[in-house]
Design a protein that fits this description.
This protein is mostly beta strands and about 70 residues long. Helices cover about 0% and strands about 60% of the residues. It contains no helices and five strands. It starts with 6 loop residues before the first strand and ends with a strand.
């Protein structure tokens, strides 16, 4: 059985965002993932999704922040 406690499914955000199953350490309410000179922010939801790696919590995109420069 897969270790589902340390991974999440990402929903929304840029279409070209790589990898929709990501590690979460520690599990929480928000993920901040570097992508193309900024960060994509995802928030935990109460939903879960069946994946090839088991049933995982769903985090949905809610904003992007740009790096200065």
């Amino acid at each position: 059985m897969a270790d589902t406690a340390a991974k999440a499914v990402l929903e929304g955000g840029p279409e070209e965002f790589p990898g929709r199953i990501v590690p979460i350490d520690p599990p929480g309410t928000e993920l901040k993932i570097p992508f193309r000179n900024g960060y994509e922010h995802f928030r935990a939801t109460s939903r879960h999704q069946k994946t090839s790696e088991g049933t995982l919590p769903v985090y949905e995109w809610w904003e992007r922040t740009e790096l200065p420069g």
